[in-house]
Amino acid sequence: MEIRTVAGNWQPSTPKEKATTIALQQDCGYHKAQQLLQSMYNANLISLQEFNAVTKLNRQAFAPFLVELLPKISG
């Protein structure tokens, strides 16, 4: 195994904003909604297109804290 070091004055990045109670509640709501949506998709109750459409709406409604890290939605 090869170990590499980072040269210079590297510092870990910090989030641009701190998580507030409301942001954490919205994030929790988003993940609960997505779990339910995933269950519906896995049970063939909704199509992939419907899953993606509702996921986009969930991201707008709940505004997850680190939404920019979530995978992109096609379609």
Order of SSEs, N→C?
A: HH
| Unreliable spans | none
Number of helices: 2
Please outline the major beta sheet: none
Explain this structure.
The protein is mostly helical. The chain has a domain at 21-64. 49% of the residues lie in helices and 0% in strands.
In short:
By secondary structure, the chain is an all-alpha fold. The protein has a domain at 21-64. It is built from 2 helices and no strands.
Keyword list:
mainly alpha, 2 helices, SHOCT-like domain-containing protein, SHOCT_2
Produce the secondary structure layout.
Blueprint: H1 21-42, H2 48-62
Helix pairs in contact: 1-2
